[in-house]
Amino acid sequence: MAVLWALPAYAETWTTTDGKTYEDVKVIRVEPDAITILFHDGGALVPIFKLPPALQKRFSYDPVKAKIAADNRAREDAENAKLLQAEIEQADAIKKAKQIQDGNQINQAQATAPTAH
Prior knowledge:
The protein is of the alpha+beta class. Helices cover 48% and strands 22% of the residues.
């Protein structure tokens, strides 16, 4: 379940505990395990555990709830990846069948075409 927060009137600069800096941060969405942001160079999903303690507190970080949310996200990502792979395989099969059909039509047209003497 996602909780939306009001966007701040000003943009901030965040530096994560692993040294990544995000300039002109605008919070888009807050979830138990991560925060979706827009920043100077694009967008990102930042794990809350990588934020400094003051930001973790600001976003009510709870490691137990974050673990559950992260596990759910990983499970959903894996399911989506399987569905995407199935769609790719289905598209490849359709493409291959079309190529075979086209080849058969060409062969049939060549076999029935009158030959020049």
